[in-house]
Amino acid sequence: MQPEARTNRTAVTEFILLGLVETENLQPMVFVLFLFAYLVTVGGNLSILTAILVEPKLHTPMYFFLGNLSVLDIGCITVTVPAMLGRLLSHKRTIPYAACLSQLFFFHLLAGIDCFLLTAMAYDRFLAICRPLTYSTRMSQTVQRILVAVSWACAITNALTHTIALTTLNFCGPNEVNHFYCDLPQLFQLSCSSTQLNELLLFGMSFIMAGTLVVLTIISYIHVAAAVLQIRSVEGRKKAFSTCGSHLTVVCLFYGTGMFNYMRLGSEKASDKDKGVGVFNTVINPMLNPLIYSLRNPDVQGALWRVLVGRQSLT
């Protein structure tokens, strides 16, 4: 009976992404909203990159990491949203198995680098505020590049591990993914083989990565808060809290949604909550980061204004 059962199993070669809404009347509105969000995100992050590149005052470690974060935000939204917009236009909801795995790999790669960069930025603020005399040597260009390289290496390892582990699962039954992009929790539900080890791997690696990095970030900011409270100047204290507050806001949004999505044991049925978290991870966070971090920063605003005025004078 076992050989016969095996012959009855048909390997899934493509998945059907159900998307955010199944009502056809709402799809044009979803298309317009997400196209607008994509253009705003890419435009905002490119503006930050332009300001950092052209303004010498912004050639500091903090803005070096912010520039990298902007590139990641553009990549993160580009991995998911354009493909979704294309499916809405063509009314074709299928995605090949290989394309699904590629999307999953690049999404987890970019999100993983994001995790490590946010911790590197917390370490940068710790050195700048708590160790100002040795800041230039401890956060030299070599150290910055090493931190970014380590972030890439760890994120590639994490993303590759989950992608390879997913290829060991059999998909032979329903192929409808209740989401607008391919992600691990939703694909686990479609497997006709046991996903227990994959779920433990996802939970364990998320716990190690997120747990370790969150603890390091919190430790950094405990020291920062203690140092800032000792600053006598009200203006200096306000500026330090403003910079650190922006970073903490991004950290809370990023890790809050990530933990909800990945640190769950057991194959829970996919719901609209997962789609909402997915929108937050892939669209809202990358769109808000330029506003939270840099566009309200006087140095960045001044650099952007000079770029725009310079272009107008040339024309």
Q: Which residues sit in consecutive blocks of at least 5 with pLDDT less than 50? A: 1-9
Q: How large a portion of the residues is in β-strands, by DSSP E?
A: under 5%
Assembly state of the chains shown: single chain
Shape from CA axes? Answer: globular
How many DSSP-defined strands?
3
Q: Report the end-to-end length measured between terminal Cα atoms.
A: 77 Å
Tell me, rounded to a whole number, the average pLDDT: 84
Biggest sheet: strands, sense, closure? 3 strands, mixed
Task: Give the strand order of the largest sheet, numbering strands 1, 2, ... along the chain.
Answer: 2-1-3
Name the features.
single chain; 315 residues; mainly alpha; three-stranded mixed β-sheet; 3 strands; globular; disordered N terminus; sensory transduction; G-protein coupled receptor; membrane
Explained architecture:
- The chain has helices spanning 2-8, 27-54, 61-90, 97-130, 135-138, 141-167, 184-188, 196-229, 234-262, 272-295, 298-314, and strands at residues 14-17, 94-96, 176-177.
- It has eleven helices and three strands; from the N terminus they run αβααβαααβααααα.
- The chain has 315 residues and is mainly alpha-helical.
- The model is unreliable at 1-9 (pLDDT under 50).
- 34% of the residues are buried.
- The chain starts with a helix and ends with a helix.
Chain-wise SSE layout:
Blueprint: H1 2-8, E1 14-17, H2 27-54, H3 61-90, E2 94-96, H4 97-130, H5 135-138, H6 141-167, E3 176-177, H7 184-188, H8 196-229, H9 234-262, H10 272-295, H11 298-314
Parallel strand pairs: 1-3
Antiparallel strand pairs: 1-2
